[in-house]
């Protein structure tokens, strides 16, 4: 599958842009961490895992609303994104990869009910604003998702974008246009690149054999 990222002209252009975006995100995350007085990003992920008891969570994105709300409200999007992926470096003991579940919880922040969970937040006006305004949560979470889409291969980015909740999708596209305008132009023209992922090919095969989607 990786060869496909080097064959099509749009995929090659996207690949160069994605590598540039990934460098920019990590550079910005490092600056933001320093500005927040954070010793290191993995340490922040470890503390977050402890506060929200990741080892006790089931493999269900609904369990990660508390973590996602913390990420969306406390840190800038580049730093929040870096912390999400730092969970893979933390021995959290849950026995599965929490990253996709956290990202899905981030995606669904607009319908999250903060009052239903216990949160460990610094006393700032920012999280109080997010608490009361689903649209603020949606815009903030879309910035994180724009970084996820912008830093992966086009076939993955296309699949992530295609699978987004219908309420979230236009807001994420707006943030991709802001963060990665060159990538947004490619994404809008190459909406079927997800078909070249493993799941996409299986879906096409199933539809060919049985006349409907899996």
Account of the 3D structure:
With 214 residues, the chain is mostly helical. The longest helix is centred in the first third of the chain and has 27 residues, at 9-35. The two termini are 21 Å apart. 65% of the residues lie in helices and 0% in strands. It is built from twelve helices and no strands. Helix 3 (41-51) packs across helix 5 and helix 8 crosses helix 10. It has helices at residues 4-7, 9-35, 41-51, 65-74, 77-86, 99-107, 125-132, 134-150, 154-163, 169-179, 181-189, 198-210. It has one domain. Residues 1-5 and 192-211 have low confidence and may be disordered.
In round numbers, the mean pLDDT is 85
Largest sheet: none
- When the domains are counted, the total is 1
Count of DSSP E strands?
0
| Helix share bin | 55-70%
Keywords:
single chain, 214 residues, mainly alpha, 12 helices, globular, disordered N terminus
Reconstruct the topology from this structure.
Blueprint: H1 4-7, H2 9-35, H3 41-51, H4 65-74, H5 77-86, H6 99-107, H7 125-132, H8 134-150, H9 154-163, H10 169-179, H11 181-189, H12 198-210
